[in-house]
Amino acid sequence: MSRRLSSLSPNALGAVAALAALMLDQAHKYWMLKVYDIAARQPVTLTPFLDLVLSWNYGVSYSLFATHDGAARYAMLAVQGAIVVGLIVWLRRVTNHLGALALGLVIGGALGNMTDRLARGAVADFFHLHTTLPVGPLANYVFNVADVAITAGVALLLYESFLTPPPLSHRP
């Protein structure tokens, strides 16, 4: 972490990470949809296992709970908003930089996908990870920059949980 970022309070670092993830996600989506026009060019093969495509996700992960009507979409947004509020409360209580960075990435990614749902009615996904081998859920997965931020944030939270010793009261 750069000296400038490490000099920020954990709360400020989390806010910067959230804003950066949100802005990067929305800038990438704007570029893919409006400038590059992925809808007219898809699929674009990047590697034998990764393509650029346009996929509209009307649900959450793997299109679970897909909603096409306004009321259900707003209900999903309300649930997502409540989760983000909970994450912000958690962020305000974090006292270390790694946890704050992780939560900021998750918050920013969630806000990026919520922005899509509000503005476009669905979340735009572009990266199609695929394989012909039956290797589980990643055999056919489409995601975006917000999803990468969320996944990185969760991975950092897991990493941090292994680094942080339990409180003295919980030790054997």
Describe this structure in words.
By secondary structure, the chain is an alpha+beta fold. The chain has helices spanning 3-6, 10-35, 38-41, 70-93, 97-120, 145-163, and strands at 44-47, 50-57, 123-130, 140-143. The protein has one domain. The chain is built from six helices and four strands. Strands 1-2-3-4 form a four-stranded antiparallel sheet. A hairpin with a 2-residue loop joins strand 1 (44-47) and strand 2.
List keywords for this structure.
172 residues; alpha+beta; four-stranded antiparallel β-sheet; 59% helix; 14% strand
Topology of this structure?
Elements lengths: L2 H4 L3 H26 L2 H4 L2 E4 L2 E8 L12 H24 L3 H24 L2 E8 L9 E4 L1 H19 L9
Antiparallel strand pairs: 1-2, 2-3, 3-4
Helix pairs in contact: 2-5, 4-5, 5-6
